[in-house]
Amino acid sequence: GFHEAVGDVIAQSVVTPKHMVKIGLLPESAQKEDSEVDLNFLMSQALSKVAFLPYGYLIDVWRWNVFRGNISSNYYNCEWWKLRSEVQGVQPPNIRSEEHFDPGAKYHIPANVPYIR
User: Fold this and answer.
1) Is 79 annotated as a binding residue?
2) How many C-beta atoms surround the C-beta of residue 77 within 10 A?
3) Alpha carbon of 104 to those of 7, 13, 22, 76, 81: distances in Å?
4) 4 is in an annotated binding site
5) pLDDT value at position 11?
6) How confident is the model over 50-64, as a mean pLDDT?
């Protein structure tokens, strides 16, 4: 909710190259106006935030489908990996079955915490 947004804003402000130089975690050379430094910082931010969006989305799609009764409890894991494949293009590292419950490895599933609010 709101507290997470405030936390994200604060976290974003303290990881900028300018702030990192100020507290001594980066050398002065990182503070100069350099497009390469800016590009590297922006790429780092994109990889940590944007790359996560498909996964966050599929977690809630899976949850909504369970709540709506669109997924039988006999197929929870199968549907999880079907969504992972469709949305992210990833496959399980080894053969998975309904004896496994891979969605439960993500805190938000057993704790009933939605990503999309």
Assistant:
1) no
2) 19
3) 26, 33, 41, 10, 13
4) yes
5) 82
6) 93
